[in-house]
Write a structure and sequence with these properties.
The structure is a single chain. The protein is mainly α and 437 residues long. Helix content is 56%, strand content 9%. It contains 13 helices and 7 strands. It has a 3-stranded antiparallel β-sheet, with helices on one face. A hairpin with a 5-residue loop joins strand 6 and strand 7 (142-151). Helix 4 packs antiparallel against helix 5 (197-232) and helix 5 (197-232) runs antiparallel to helix 6 (242-267). The radius of gyration is 32 Å and the shape is extended. It starts with 46 loop residues before the first helix and ends with a helix.
């Protein structure tokens, strides 16, 4: 990736001393022209002839390379660039690199150099797409970064692959069933369907599930196309798996969202458990106080993040960006920190920041949070006897099942127990009547 000459403005006071200015990489000033060797500009008549050539001096766009933009530490780069394919042997690659070095392929206008290659381990059926980048700053420094994405293209390999295929077909069949069921419910309830929390959760889960199935089908198509291109490639052609690796990563995110929402739906089944019910009631009672606490925590935490970014961002890579500072302090709050690095960077302010964060966040804010939860739980526990009879109904059903299989000890039934059982049985009959209606 290259930057144009005179891409930044020279101050008039230094005009007699500086005759050029090259800015940091950006999408507006990136160089996308075609050149001869040694970056010699062609004449207007020869520009059209260079466009069809594939040399390391001719720019190739992202569509031709089938590459996605790359997010580096310094900037975000387009998917295109000036490309040189290496050979299949070490000697050929050394000759290519020597030729690029002698031709000054990397010069003062260069802002990033990427090395991309793909690995495959047949023993574990895994691909590895590797991108190694060197980012050059306008000040002359360089920053290195390696990005490795591991993914699986062939899901149906061996006996286990057949099992995976069967379960995926079952998943598709269940998705079709729930799709039909939810459509019927929406027709029946109309706009009232979207007013219930659990209905919205079912709707979001269904939409994400359908999107995940579509992405899976597209992933199979992309894998087939990539393998076909690999079989037809010559010894100097490079088949880019970077886009497929990125797509596989997005597919994994979608699957993760579906699993997350499905796990939340399972909480609905735990409402008959007394302790889980008390947990839900505790959160509901403490909602107002937790909102105030959330605002307070956010203000203090972001203040510490900004302070950490200003204090350690210059020397510690984990605090090099504000987002990195947020992630590092979240890890700090969970117990992962490096006090020696903080003290080595800022001998006085580093320890002060460390103990201030411990005192305010660990002791102060966490103590406030536990106090809110504790008071709400005490109130809910004192009112647990006035809760609905759903929990006793579940206990009654559990005892009957245990007794049916001989797992429950026999005990003498007192009139008080009979009255309690009659109440539970009455609640059970009322619930069954409501479900029939």
């Amino acid at each position: 990736m290259r930057i144009k000459n005179d891409s930044c403005e020279i101050q008039p006071e230094f005009g007699s001393l500086i005759n050029h200015c090259r800015d940091e990489y950006n999408w507006n000033d990136d160089d996308a022209k075609d050149y001869y060797s040694h970056w010699v500009k062609p004449s207007k008549e020869n520009r059209s002839l260079l466009a069809d050539q594939e040399t390391p001096w001719v720019y190739q766009n992202s569509l031709k390379l089938k590459n996605a933009p790359y997010v580096g530490d310094i900037s975000t780069y387009k998917g295109g660039g000036y490309v040189q394919s290496f050979g299949r042997t070490v000697d050929v690659t050394k000759k290519i690199l020597k030729n690029l070095q002698d031709s000054d392929w990397i010069d003062l206008n260069t802002r990033a150099v990427f090395i991309e290659f793909t690995l495959f381990n047949g023993n574990v059926n895994l691909f590895g797409s590797v991108t190694m980048a060197v980012e050059f700053m306008a000040t002359g420094g360089a920053n290195t970064k390696a990005d490795i994405k591991v993914f699986r293209l062939f899901s149906y390999v061996g006996g286990f692959g057949a099992i995976v295929l069967v379960f995926e077909l079952i998943f598709v069949a269940m998705t079709i069933y729930f799709f039909v069921r939810e459509v019927n419910r929406m027709r029946k309830d109309g706009k009232a369907y979207f007013k219930g929390f659990w209905n919205l959760l079912d709707f979001c889960t269904l939409c994400l599930t359908i999107a995940t199935i579509a992405m899976k089908i597209m992933k199979i198509g992309l894998a087939s196309a990539a393998m076909s291109a690999l079989k037809q490639a010559t010894s100097t052609d490079f088949v880019n798996f970077q886009s497929i690796a990125l797509y596989d990563e997005m597919y994994s995110w979608m699957v993760g969202f579906v699993v997350f929402l499905s796990t939340i739906k399972s909480i609905k089944l735990l409402r008959f458990n007394r302790r889980m019910g008390m947990l839900g009631q505790t959160i509901m009672v403490a909602t107002k106080d937790l909102k105030i606490f959330g605002i307070t925590f956010t203000i203090y935490f972001l203040a510490f993040c900004q302070a950490a970014y200003l204090l350690f961002g210059k020397n510690l890579s984990s605090y090099g960006t504000f987002i990195g500072s947020v992630e590092s302090l979240f890890a700090f709050a969970l117990g992962q920190f490096d006090f020696a690095s903080m003290r080595g960077t800022q001998k006085v302010l580093g320890p002060i920041f460390f103990f201030a964060f411990v005192g305010v966040v660990y002791i102060g804010l966490m103590g406030m949070f536990l106090t809110i939860i504790g008071e709400a739980f005490t109130l809910v526990k004192s009112q647990s006897d006035e809760m609905e009879n759903e929990y006793e109904m579940v206990d009654f059903i559990t005892r009957r099942l245990r007794g049916l299989f001989g797992m429950d000890e026999k005990k003498k039934v007192t009139p008080q127990d009979e009255s309690g059982n009659s109440k539970v049985s009455g609640s059970l009959r009322d619930l069954l009547k409501e479900s029939d209606c």
